[in-house]
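Fold it.
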Amino acid sequence: MNRLPNRSTLLILRTLSKMTGVDKPIENAIRVKLEKGLSPSFLEIFNESYMHNVPEGSETHFKVVVVSDQFSDQPLIKRHRMVNELLQHELKNGVHALSIVAKTPAQWEQSSQTVSPSPACRGGFGK
């Protein structure tokens, strides 16, 4: 399991990304919609497109880690639906795959704030 960077490190990484002029319109749209719709206490978005057979710089495969009080008393399927509803435009317009880790703050603390890495791409069609 990979330990996610702490908040200070994430702030530095986001600042560096902005300073280098890296353009990530889909990732940025995902961030804005999840922040506005779920008011997360923790949010991290991983562009996993590089793990797939897509052109360099693509924004087609994402993993989101969202920790929100709004997930309290909600089953996992409902949490995923909440995220999918917020990102319906992106899912219809270019995002091919979305992995969702949706936890309450208590669950996030119990998990030691870690998430499992995504599996390697098998090339589609069960290869």
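The chain has five helices and five strands.
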